[in-house]
Design goal:
The protein is 46% helix and 18% strand. By secondary structure, the chain is of the alpha+beta class. A 7-stranded mixed beta sheet has the order 10-9-13-12-11-14-15. The chain has a 4-stranded mixed beta sheet with strand order 4-1-7-8. A 4-stranded antiparallel beta sheet has the order 3-2-5-6. Helix 5 (147-172) runs antiparallel to helix 6 (176-205). The radius of gyration is 24 Å and the shape is globular. The N and C termini lie far apart (54 Å).
């Protein structure tokens, strides 16, 4: 991995402080001491969370130079994660590793560079992650192709990744424990594409490809242990299992594409319960499926039936509480209710009380500077709608940014006749209004009551909702 000069300089600057002077000492067999430190450029908050299996192990506070360092007296080798709100990434620790990381919150994943004992393995994982993310952004076109062209494309991409894996394995000489993780990072994004293809192809083209797939198309399934708890919280693993369940439901229904319909969604829960025996993995997968269902399906009666089934299969009380909380908040967003009062400021820094400014039918949309293409696209769409519907008000709510970053971005695009406001406490807003992605749109009646809290501005039928 090629490291920019400013990152190398920053790393060397921290190392020169002698923080990791103990890295070279010999460790006893019983010694599991490890270090984790680094620097956060453009921090959003003054800390980094160090986590294992979604549980916070420690909160690492930044000093005056936005650096952090922590000594773990005993750290079990394995996969961990670190969070600098709202982003996170994985990190692998072998016995006695001493790792440092440079993070730039403005380009989180692309900025991450590790240094110190254990850095090569983690830089390899990041290289694989970024390569797979790049692939993911172009998959629409690949899913559009017929089965022969699709298989040719994904297989050629996999060959490149496999060469990268083999090169690093030979160079670094990592141990079997890390190799099992490296193989998951290599294989499962590839297997995930193959599981997604049948139902993605049907969604994009309308053509059912199931009967045209080669007889050995699903041979990869024999290579995946669905009950390996070591990868229960590793995103490539969870994504693969979720896609596998989606595809099995789709195939069992002979190409039915109603992914978030009640019957199919409950069927997926039942398949997960049958296929996955490890309770830790099962709970994580069930939780993810329930979360996605609630983000897509807002029929209150259907929600109750679905959640009842979910609660019978899930055994994780914390996850159950999360899903029940989301479901309850969705109920509060039913038509005829009013939105909860949240904290907003306008461009002048003045507080904005939405309940007092709604005078006409209103469209509320959301955006973040971290999703640049969406930010530009949604404003173009809103400006077009505003021209066609001058009596409807449009309010853009900036989420997930600092106030300064938001104000700077406002100067770069046209927002005439749109009220632009900034969410002061996005975490609270996200929970109460169920805003888990910036594609959500909320329609309000002229009296401020909810008309529809779950629409999408880019839906081809969106304009019908304005009538």
């Amino acid at each position: 991995m090629i490291r920019p000069l400013h990152i190398i300089t920053s790393l060397l600057s921290i190392i020169s402080l002698g923080l990791f002077s103990s890295c070279d000492k010999k460790h006893s067999v019983e010694d599991y001491t490890a270090y984790f430190g680094g620097e956060v450029l453009n921090p959003h908050v003054n800390y980094v969370l160090f986590m294992k299996d979604n549980n916070v192990i420690d909160t690492l506070f930044l000093d005056a130079k936005n650096r952090f360092l922590h000594k773990f007296d005993s750290l079990t080798p394995g996969l961990y994660s670190f969070v600098h709100y709202p982003e996170y990434q994985n990190v692998f620790f072998d016995k006695n590793d001493s790792l440092m990381v440079i993070i730039n919150s403005k380009d989180f994943d692309n900025s991450i560079v590790f240094c110190g004992r254990g850095d090569e393995k983690n830089n390899f994982l990041m290289e694989m992650y970024l390569a797979n993310e790049k692939d993911r952004s172009s998959m629409y076109d690949v899913f559009f192709r017929d089965s022969k062209e699709f298989i040719k494309n994904v297989d050629s991409s996999f060959v490149i990744r496999k060469k990268l894996y083999e090169k690093n394995k030979e160079k670094i000489q990592w141990n079997p424990s890390f190799d099992s993780l490296a193989l998951v990072a290599l294989n499962l994004p590839h297997f995930n594409k193959k599981e997604m293809y049948p139902y993605a192809h049907k969604f994009i083209t309308g053509h059912n490809i199931i009967n045209e797939l080669p007889k050995n198309y699903y041979e990869h399934r024999t290579k995946v242990d669905l009950n390996n708890a070591a990868f229960a919280n590793y995103n490539p693993f969870v994504k693969y299992v979720t896609s596998l369940l989606n595809n099995q439901t789709f195939t069992d229904n002979k190409g039915d594409i109603d992914e978030f319909g009640l019957e199919n969604s409950i069927k997926k829960l039942n398949i997960a319960d049958t296929l996955i025996k490890n309770s830790k993995i099962k709970n994580i997968v069930l939780n993810r499926m329930a979360f996605r269902y609630l983000m897509e399906e807002q029929n209150i009666n259907n929600n109750k039936e679905y959640i009842d089934r979910y609660l019978k299969l899930s055994t994780d009380k914390k996850m159950q509480s999360e899903i029940k909380g989301i479901s309850n908040n969705i109920k509060k967003l039913s038509a005829g209710n009013k939105l909860s009062n949240e904290s907003f400021v306008n461009e002048k820094g003045e507080s904005v009380d939405l309940s007092k400014i709604i005078k006409n039918q209103t469209v509320i949309f959301f955006y973040s500077t971290k999703a640049q293409s969406h930010l530009i696209g949604v404003h173009k769409k809103v400006m077009a709608y505003k021209q066609k519907h001058p009596n409807i008000d449009f309010i853009g709510i900036n989420i997930d940014d600092s106030k300064d970053d938001w104000l700077k971005k406002l100067t770069e695009f046209d927002h005439k006749n749109i009220l632009e406001i900034h969410a002061v406490d996005f975490e609270k807003l996200k929970e109460n209004w169920v805003i888990y992605n910036n594609h959500r749109t909320i329609l309000l009646n002229a009296d401020g009551t909810i008309k529809n809290a779950f629409v999408h501005l880019f839906d081809v039928n969106f304009e019908d909702c304005l009538k």
